[in-house]
Structure formats: structure tokens, C-alpha cells
Write a structure and sequence with these properties.
single chain; 688 residues; alpha+beta; nine-stranded mixed sheet; 23 helices; binds adenosine-5'-diphosphate; binds magnesium ion
């Protein structure tokens, strides 16, 4: 591990590499362009490109690619070699133009109607705020991806725009608090990633895992996560070797992988990086997911990133830790030590409170998918209802402020904001509630509703934009106030009064909470099919347009893509079930019941009692009938369903019924006659 400092970022064309390799003037000009947000000149781009190419070739790269994040939620690349003909030989070439802009044929990426198919062209444009890196001997250049018309076809463009909006509005607030030295406010994100590891051998024998990423059948094993003996347990050597290699590969790419541990379910694990800017954290999380899969395969394992690979044990999520920090090193959600920081903290906190309450719908929508429908509201994940956990201490402070009352018996006069009454929040007093979907954890918010396979771009676009919008309102009001402190006090008090309904420190899994939330008027959309149709509500179209994050057409395209994806995912799952049933499961059940039948006949013929065989045979024949009927009903539901709501209402229940019939038959059939590895052998497949 002494190599670590050397290893870290060794495959990244980072700031220090640029500083070392670029001519001094170019480096300075480049940095200036970035800081001021101008477009790069061709001359500058040519020099950077040439230096980047030399560095990449030294690292063994032969190709380059613009690396982008289309609406599929994963990353895309199109490799091109550096080769250019020269005389009767070749040279390695890479121009500024190739660095800055690419033109992949984009016709097969989802565009949600943004791009007519005859306009196949899409453009990728370099995002110089995220460093280029080398992966698979290829220089990868992080890029935004847009249509010929300029409309964004990706997740990075709106994310960058939302960060810009947040920066603009947060700076206005900071000016009011006299923080004139701050030049930039950046959204920071740390994305904790959960995943499963199973043996590749058993993975390969499950068509459902191969086609859909989750098991569509499988009876409960005798042991699941009942004993809680996996959580933070000792790592198995094979898993430990995987994690070691994963850490090293991530470090080389400059990803600050920090902690790795076992999670609650058998075979479940988690990785947490150290936070960084939302843009880079998004890129890094994509790389992390990609490397997890790749490195698992090298260790003979399959990494499952699906939200619910197994019924009956916990699914996988992603925690999006979010805050805002200044270029001067201040975390704006850090309560701070001095009175003025307290007041500033309270204002930012109230901004998040108001934003999350006004836009519960957007937070819910940002985590809506067919896969995540299996988690949200289940007993391991936050419910589908957005609420905010602040902890007792902070809640008491807000209550006191709202009531213009004393906090903790402090003299009334001290309750004026701007007086130092704010306690520090040790992490352990604020982090106890693991059931909250959106929790303040000491100096950041932790949004816990994300599914494990999600890009974190979506939820952070929502957070950045909605908070920017409220900060804009606040700044509008405070900038024109004659008495700043008075206006601030009123603003904070009114915000708490108007939005305290969102604050809930209790158990979010309790059934009573659903009723209480309903009484409070909080939104409860159990399924993505309920949530997604609201993305283009008037309020949301206006919000994103106001901050230049999405045009109405761009927002509409996202909605179409998400709804379409929901339908397609469930359609593939249903077809996979039907395929498995007719090819393997029914023949398996019928085979065994036929064998029982002929065994019974043989026994009968020699006068031995065959009640056992006959009974089992009858039971299995009955179940086979149910399986067949279930498959028929599912086929019918598929035929009759087109919209997301129809899939949710007709197809999903039919899938459940079919699964139940199959899962009832499975334990009655000998393991070696059942066509697929069972839950026990999947969940406990990595033994050593
Ligand atoms: P946990 O209790 O969930 O283990 P940690 O404090 O260890 O919480 O952090 C979880 C994640 O939150 C890490 O990825 C960490 O880097 C990230 N995090 C910490 N501070 C911030 C911040 N200011 N902004 C964004 N993420 C942060
Ligand atoms: Mg966490």
C-alpha cells in the first residue's frame, strides 16, 4: 500500500498532470477558460489534445472515445484509434476538434421524440470539468451529448446546468451574509453503492438473472437474512480479493473509494466513496458500477446491481449524500461555530426544507423505475412517501424558532437568529434513523430512495434545481429588505411554519406513518406508474425552464423515455417468465409427476402401498395446472396492456400469481430435477 499515493489517479489526465505537461501559458489559459466558463479556443484545444494524446500513448492507449451518458442511464462510448495515414505509414494523431466535439451516430439512443430518426446525428461535447481518463487502453473523454438542434439527449448536460443554477442563487445568498470572497458554490455528492455478488456458475444457469437482472422465480430458502449474521461480517477471501482489486482500479481512476463492507442480505455488499462535486461523483459512480461488473467476472462472480435481485431478502439501493460547498472550503450545511454561520446555516436548511416539501413529487419521480418499485415501501427501504428527518435537537430548534420561543430554556432574547445558540451535531445523534428517505446527517442530506442501478444524475438534477429555485425566492426577498435581520427572522419562521409537515423523525416503515402522512397531505405514489405521469406537471415545466435546466420539450422527452422504459422492463420480465415456464419449469414439474405416477403404478402392481407417490403426483399435477393457467393469464394481460398503468395493474399482478404457483411447486421437486439453481445455492454461492 506504500504505492497508493502513486497509484491514485495514475490513469487520469488530472490537473497536476496538465500542470506538468502543458506549456505554462496554455495551462493558465486553460484554467482561466474553465473558471470563467468560456468555450475553449481551437488553438488551446489543439495543444491540450496533443498533450493528452502523448500522455495516453505513454499509458498504452491506442484509441480514444467520447464517453457520455445517454438516457439509457448507463454510459456509452465509440472507440476510434489515434491512427492517421502518413505517406505509406501511419502516425498517431488527435486534434483539438476531435477532443472538443464528436459526432456519434445517435439514432439508436432513446431520445423521447426529441430527434426525428432522419436526424441521426448527435453531438458530444467535451466537459472539461471532469478529467479524461484511461480505461481498457482507451482514452475516455467525458462529454455531454445533444441533438442536432442543441437539445440535451443525456444526463450530464442538465446536471451541469442545475449545478450552475444552484451556484448562481447560492452566491446571491452568501453575498447577503457578507461572504464576498466566495466565487463558486458547488453541489457535492457522495454516492454509497449497494450490490450483490454471486458465483458466475449459478448466475449463468438463471435466464431470469441474465435477461432481467433479478430472479423471477424462487422459493424462500431455509435461511435468509434472519440471523443478521452477514451485516458487517467478516469478508470471504474471494470477496475480499474482489474488493481489493476494485479499490485499486477505482483509485487509479481517481475515484475515492473509501469503505467496503458486507450489507444486511447474504451476498450483499456496499461501497462508499469520499464525496466530490456532483458532476464528478456521477461520472465516478458510473465507473464504479461498470468496474464492479467487470472485476466480479475476473473473480468468477457476477455482480448484481438490480434493485431487487431476490424476493424475501433486502434489495439494493444507493444513498445520495448531498450538500453544497464553496470554493473557499465552507460546507453550507455545516451548522458552524459562529452566530452568523448559524443563521446562514438555518437559511440554507430552510431552503432545502421548503424545496423538498414543494417538490416532493420531483424527488419521488427521480427515483421511479420498475426495479425500484420492488423496494420503495417494502420493509428494507424508505417508503414511497418523501419526508425529512432532522433529528430531535434540530427539530426542537426549528420548533422554538417557529414559536418565537426559547430553545432549551435559553433566554428569549437569544432566540433571535444571529445569536449563537446552535449546538454542534455529532453524527451519532443525527444518523440514527435509517428508515427516513431524506435525512439530515450532521452536515449533509442523505437521499436514500435511489435504486442501486440508477445514475445519480437524475436525483441531483432535482435537488440542485429545486433548492436553487427556493434560494432565488429567498434572495429576491432578502435583497430588497430594509432590515436584513428582521426579514431573515420572518423568512425562517414562515418557512418552518409552512413546511414543517415534511419533518418526520419517527419510524417510516410503520403502517401508521402512511396514514399520518396522508393526514399531513404528503404525496404517496407507490409505483413509478403513479409518479412518472407527473413529471411534466405545469409547476415542474416552469421550474426547469426558469433555471434553464430542461426546456419543456426536453422534460417531455424524459417522461416518455422513463414511461417507455417502465413498460419495456416489465414486458421483458413477463416474456422471460413465460419462456422459463414453457421451456423448463412445466416440463420439469410434469416429468417428476409422471415419474411419481409410474412409480405408483409399479408399486401397486406388486401390492405395495403407493399413497405417498399418488398424493405427491396429484399435488404436482394440480400445481402444474395452476402454472399453466397463470402463464395463460399473463399472456392475456400482456396482450391487453400498453400503458405503464396497465402494466402495473394487469401484468404485474399476473406475474405475481404465476410466480406463486411456480414457487409452491419448486420445494416439492428434487433439486436435481429442478431446472435452475435454487435461492439457497444462489445466495450462498460464494462460500469460501
Ligand atoms: P454513513 O453514516 O452513511 O456511513 P458517512 O459520513 O460515512 O455516512 O458518509 C457517507 C457518504 O457521505 C460518504 O460518501 C461521504 O463522503 C459523503 N459525504 C460526507 N460529507 C459530505 C458532503 N458535505 N457532501 C456530500 N457528501 C458527503
Ligand atoms: Mg448511508
Amino acid at each position: 500500500m506504500d504505492r497508493l499515493p502513486e497509484l491514485f489517479g495514475s490513469k487520469v489526465f488530472s490537473d497536476s498532470v496538465m500542470q506538468k505537461r502543458l506549456p505554462h501559458d496554455t495551462y493558465k489559459a486553460f484554467k482561466r477558460t474553465l473558471a470563467e466558463g468560456h468555450a475553449l479556443t481551437r488553438e488551446l484545444a489543439d495543444i491540450v489534445a496533443s498533450s493528452m494524446k502523448d500522455w495516453a500513448i505513454e499509458q498504452g492507449a491506442t484509441h480514444f472515445t467520447h464517453w457520455f451518458q445517454p438516457m439509457t442511464g448507463i454510459t456509452a462510448e465509440k472507440h476510434e484509434s489515434f491512427i492517421a495515414p502518413l505517406g505509406d505509414g501511419v502516425i498517431m494523431e488527435f486534434s483539438g476538434k476531435e477532443l472538443i466535439i464528436g459526432e456519434p451516430d445517435a439514432s439508436s439512443f432513446p431520445s423521447g421524440g426529441l430527434r426525428a430518426t432522419f436526424e441521426a446525428r448527435g453531438y458530444t461535447a467535451w466537459d472539461p470539468t471532469s478529467y479524461a481518463f484511461i480505461k481498457d487502453d482507451t482514452l475516455c473523454i467525458p462529454t455531454a451529448f445533444c441533438a442536432y438542434t442543441g437539445e440535451a439527449l443525456d444526463k450530464k448536460t442538465p446536471l451541469l446546468k442545475s449545478m450552475e443554477a444552484l451556484n448562481t442563487q447560492a452566491l446571491r445568498i452568501l453575498r447577503l451574509f457578507g461572504k464576498t470572497d466566495v466565487k463558486r458554490v458547488t453541489a457535492t455528492v457522495g454516492a454509497e453503492q449497494e450490490y450483490f455478488l454471486i458465483d458466475q456458475e449459478v448466475f449463468r444457469r438463471r435466464p431470469d438473472l441474465i435477461y432481467t437482472g433479478r430472479t423471477l422465480f424462487g422459493a424462500r430458502p431455509p435461511k435468509g437474512q434472519d440471523l443478521d449474521d452477514h451485516y458487517f461480517g467478516v469478508l470471504k477471501p474471494r470477496v475480499a480479493a474482489f474488493m481489493k482489486e476494485l479499490d485499486e482500479e477505482l483509485w487509479k481512476l481517481g475515484v475515492l473509494a473509501k469503505t467496503e463492507h458486507n450489507e444486511a442480505a447474504p451476498a450483499q455488499h456496499e461501497l462508499a466513496p469520499i464525496f466530490c462535486s456532483a458532476n464528478i461523483a456521477t461520472d465516478h459512480n458510473q465507473l464504479t458500477m461498470e468496474l464492479m461488473k467487470k472485476i466480479a467476472a475476473r473473480h468468477g462472480m457476477a455482480c448484481l446491481l438490480h434493485e431487487k435481485p431476490f424476493e424475501g431478502v433486502n434489495g439494493s439501493g444507493k444513498h445520495d449524500n448531498w450538500s453544497m460547498s464553496t470554493d473557499t472550503g465552507l460546507n453550507l450545511l455545516e451548522p458552524g461555530a459562529s452566530p452568523v454561520d448559524n443563521a446562514q446555516f438555518l437559511l440554507f436548511l430552510c431552503a432545502v426544507l421548503r424545496a423538498a416539501d414543494l417538490h416532493q413529487d420531483l424527488l419521488r419521480i427521480s427515483v421511479a423505475s420498475a426495479g425500484n418499485d420492488h423496494r420503495l415501501g417494502g420493509h428494507e427501504a424508505p417508503p414511497a412517501i418523501v419526508s425529512m428527518f432532522l433529528g430531535d435537537e434540530l427539530t426542537a430548534i426549528l420548533s422554538a424558532l417557529e414559536a418565537e420561543d426559547a430553545y432549551n430554556g435559553a433566554p428569549r432574547a437569544e432566540m433571535n437568529i444571529g445569536v449563537n445558540f446552535m449546538p454542534r451535531f455529532p453524527k451519532d445523534t443525527t444518523d440514527r434513523n435509517r428508515t427516513s428517505p431524506f435525512a439530515f446527517t450532521g452536515n449533509k442530506f442523505e437521499f436514500r430512495m435511489l435504486g442501486s442501478s440508477f445514475s445519480v444524475a437524475g436525483p441531483n438534477i432535482m435537488l440542485n434545481t429545486m433548492v436553487a429555485d427556493v434560494l432565488m425566492e429567498f434572495a429576491d426577498e432578502l435583497e430588497k429588505a430594509r432590515n436584513f435581520t428582521g426579514a431573515l427572522n420572518t423568512l425562517i419562521r414562515d418557512t418552518i411554519r409552512n413546511h414543517k409537515r415534511l419533518i418526520f423523525n419517527g419510524n417510516n416503515y410503520a403502517p401508521e406513518w402512511t396514514q399520518e402522512a396522508q393526514r399531513r397531505g404528503l404525496i404517496n405514489w407507490p409505483s413509478a406508474a403513479d409518479a412518472l405521469p407527473h413529471l411534466c406537471d405545469e409547476k415542474n415545466v416552469a421550474l426547469f425552464e426558469r433555471h434553464g435546466v430542461f426546456t419543456p420539450a426536453e422534460l417531455k422527452s424524459r417522461q416518455e423515455i422513463y414511461l417507455d422504459n417502465y413498460v419495456k422492463v416489465i414486458n421483458i420480465e413477463a416474456l422471460t417468465m413465460l419462456d422459463m415456464v414453457s421451456r423448463d419449469i412445466l416440463p420439469g414439474i410434469l416429468n417428476y409427476s409422471a415419474k411419481l405416477g409410474s412409480d405408483a403404478q409399479i408399486k401397486n402392481s406388486i401390492g405395495v402401498d403407493s399413497a405417498l407417490e399418488t398424493g405427491l403426483c396429484r399435488q404436482l399435477s394440480l400445481l402444474a395446472r395452476q402454472v399453466q393457467d397463470g402463464a395463460q393469464a399473463l399472456r392475456q394481460a400482456l396482450d391487453q396492456s400498453h400503458t405503464a398503468r396497465q402494466y402495473r395493474d394487469n401484468v404485474c399482478p399476473a406475474m405475481d400469481v404465476l410466480r406463486q404457483a411456480v414457487d409452491s411447486a419448486e420445494p416439492l421437486v428434487p433439486t436435481k430435477l429442478w431446472p435452475y439453481p435454487n435461492y439457497g445455492s444462489l445466495l450462498f454461492s460464494v462460500r469460501e
